[in-house]
Write a structure and sequence with these properties.
The chain has 7 helices and 5 strands, in the order βαβααβααβαβα. The mean pLDDT is 92. The chain has helices at 25-35, 44-56, 62-80, 93-103, 110-118, 145-159, 170-182; strands spanning 13-18, 39-41, 86-90, 123-127, 163-166. It has 185 residues and is an alpha/beta fold. α4 packs antiparallel against α5 (110-118). It has a 5-stranded parallel sheet, with helices on both faces. It is 49% helix and 12% strand. α6 links the parallel β4 and β5 (163-166).
């Protein structure tokens, strides 16, 4: 079943808030959706992995990644039906690829790599690491932030995907994001 995972067609632009842990992605996704009166897709992995942690005190493993991609795409497909102009995605399959490669010694399931090349997104906002790291049950790389950021950026460059780096205060990040998004009109 997972090999047939599909991204629902839409006339709306899919915008991914993309980057390492604890860089303000969720806050940006929520506020951009509010600003443009549309939908945002929460990070499926956060809820999925928090439940796993709460019940078994286990972190993400390779076997979880396919379920995470499936859950994320199911939510995206559900919410794109009621979006207006933009759908803001607080993560996507490309994030899963970076995470897999950085946490499992370069390994990424071929299905995930196929989906990265199949699913289409219109723009990525790469969130910089210039905000304080905040601990939680799932975050695990407080000392590798620069390395993680570089991995996220390198994959965007390698895949030749359109992106804008968001740095600075939350207010400044929102202003830059709105400038980029308003150019799509």
């Amino acid at each position: 079943m997972e090999e047939s995972l599909q991204q629902q067609d839409s006339d709306y632009l899919r915008i991914v808030i993309y980057g390492p842990e604890s860089t303000g992605k969720t806050t940006l996704a929520k506020e951009l959706a509010k600003e443009y009166q549309t939908q945002w897709v929460p990070e499926f992995a956060r809820e999925y992995l928090q439940k796993k942690w709460n019940s078994k005190k286990e972190l993400c493993n390779k076997e979880d990644l396919i379920q995470i991609v499936q859950g994320q795409m199911n939510e995206e497909n559900r919410l794109v039906k009621t979006a207006k102009q933009f759908l803001f995605c607080d993560t996507n399959v490309l994030v899963t690829q970076v995470w897999s490669e950085t946490h499992f010694d370069g390994f990424c399931d071929p299905r995930i790599q196929k989906w990265v090349d199949t699913f289409k997104y219109d723009h990525y906002f790469l969130t910089h690491i210039d905000v304080p790291w905040q601990a939680d049950d799932l975050r695990d790389r407080p000392n590798d932030r620069k390395e993680m950021y570089n991995s996220f950026k390198a994959l965007l460059v390698k895949k030749k995907l359109p992106f804008t780096v968001l740095k600075g205060s939350h207010h400044y990040r929102m202003e830059i994001a709105k400038q980029v998004l308003n150019n799509f009109n």
